């Protein structure tokens, strides 16, 4: 069958790598893709947020299955667009409806959902510009650290943790004044949970589910989890503290109630649920939902997923997840992300990347890359490359990823040297 994967980041490169290995895949297209996805697929110059252009690509390339990688098209309603278009009937689609995608698109919606279905999460209140005064008063009652979250999509950067109430008040005013654009028209103030974070990925058809390899990512730009949040600087799979007892708690207390809520609210959900979790004294709490796979966790997760990924996607689309089997590689995987100078702030593009041919024993998944006019690979984003490796332990995997990251260079390149430091 012909498959279209929407997106152009490291997540999509890793997914394209796995999809291309399926005997069910006759032709794979990625829109817009990057320099790396072109190794496994045909890149299409199509913006995933341009629904008519996506429609035209689907029809012109006889696509049978569409998989949406990034969150923004889902929150904007691309799944609903497909369902409403008569010409697109019968084309399978992986990704939830716009209403279901509010689990990621609105922090306030997700919090209300968790409260309604008894899913453990941090205490919270949400505020808008109209209720700013109440928000400032509420901050006076909080004990630092204080967590402020932009309600909407902010590319993984809309979360701020502050250790001073005065700074939190200044930040709340800035966020409600447009610091993150429309994403922070509403701000959630959360109680701080002290623990260690991890990520669980669920494949579901809205009724049944399967759990993919568990991972842990590192969001802060600096060593020791310092500095501003990024889209993610690295990941490991499997985090050693997530044992069978913890996963039993996650399934019983979080995954199953989440699916019950999806069913009771008649949400149309065939796709992936990313559950960002934190272990507090051995008890799991939800930090956030995402309505798609995460990045850079996907790079480590796909490395360990030995099952036919395309077959799993078809089982989700056809409501047959109950029959799905998941085969997980027993080796550990670790990913180190290489970023542009200045990221997550302003950065330059078009820097030539050298050393890719020198990499041995690791996979290099492209994120912010493209080909220049003479066919050379150049930078085209903040997060540029993700170096992923296997090992008998995650430390071995990380050592190999770092060894190969040192072979790659582009002007201003940077990466965190302490991924996995807290494990």
Give the CATH superfamily of the largest domain. ATP-grasp fold, B domain
CATH fold group of the largest domain: D-amino Acid Aminotransferase, Chain A, domain 1
Count of DSSP H/I helices: 12
Distance between the termini: 42 Å
Derived from helix and strand composition plus strand pairing, the structural class reads alpha+beta
Q: Tell me the strand percentage band.
A: 25-35%
Instruction: Indicate the CATH architecture of the largest domain.
Output: 2-Layer Sandwich
Quaternary structure annotation: single chain
Would you mind describing this structure in some detail?
With 423 residues, the chain is of the alpha+beta class. The protein has twelve helices and 22 strands. It folds into three domains: 2-89, Rossmann fold; 123-191, Dna Ligase, domain 1 (2-Layer Sandwich); 196-405, 2-Layer Sandwich (D-amino Acid Aminotransferase, Chain A, domain 1). Helices cover 28% and strands 26% of the residues. It has a five-stranded parallel beta sheet with strand order 3-2-1-4-5. It has a five-stranded antiparallel beta sheet with strand order 12-15-18-22-19. Strands 6-9-7-8 form a four-stranded antiparallel beta sheet, sandwiched between helices. A hairpin with a 2-residue loop joins β16 and β17 (283-290). α1 (10-19) runs parallel beside α10 and α7 (132-140) runs antiparallel to α8 (165-176). The longest helix has 21 residues, at 244-264. The protein starts with a strand and ends in an 18-residue tail after the last helix.
